[in-house]
Structure to design on (234 residues):
């Protein structure tokens, strides 16, 4: 069973449910970033799953930005630990992934909104 | 009278109306980018006006991305003409402005959508 099947709105979840849900989407988003510039054939599926989960749970957009910042920060620390800080400018390219996610999500909300008008 | 007061949905506009509307929001978005990293006190107002126009006209999100790309491309050409290509990497920072716009717009659609549920 998909971990996203229990589809409460994020704001209606209790603290434990919120924590579990955030843990899951953060893990999914991390995988998206890791694979974003690869030719991984499962990337589109991962993105669709993530967008769908966030849309169905009606997650506030600032929370998505926060998750992105946290993961990029983790990656940055990891690069430093590995003495590869010269690659850290590459982390800025992940902004493209965030733009991609926000554009998809925004279009989904826009269409859903228009269909209810 | 604001040029945004006639609030047809973008998709319902005739070709001339679409052209005029796009010209106006492109001009507004260009001003936002130009002022984005300044302390211009009218920046917030410009952003609110732009987001509101795009939201009310229900502009497809790919069109926003297209406008962003076109303007950054214009800036890039201008920098080359002025022999300031060394500044062109700064253009990448405008992605932050696009993230900001998309996040605001997405949150607006999300809330509007939830209020109709």
């Amino acid at each position: 069973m998909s971990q996203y099947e229990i589809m409460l709105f994020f704001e209606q979840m209790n603290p434990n449910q919120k924590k579990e849900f955030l843990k899951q989407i953060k893990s999914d988003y991390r995988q998206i970033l890791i694979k974003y510039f690869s030719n991984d054939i499962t990337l589109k599926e991962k993105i669709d799953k993530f967008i769908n989960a966030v849309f169905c749970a009606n997650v506030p957009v600032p929370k998505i930005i926060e998750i992105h910042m946290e993961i990029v920060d983790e990656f940055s620390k990891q690069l430093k630990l590995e003495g590869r800080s010269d690659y850290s400018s590459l982390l800025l390219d992940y902004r493209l992934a965030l733009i991609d996610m926000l554009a998809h999500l925004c279009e989904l909300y826009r269409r859903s909104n228009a269909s209810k008008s």
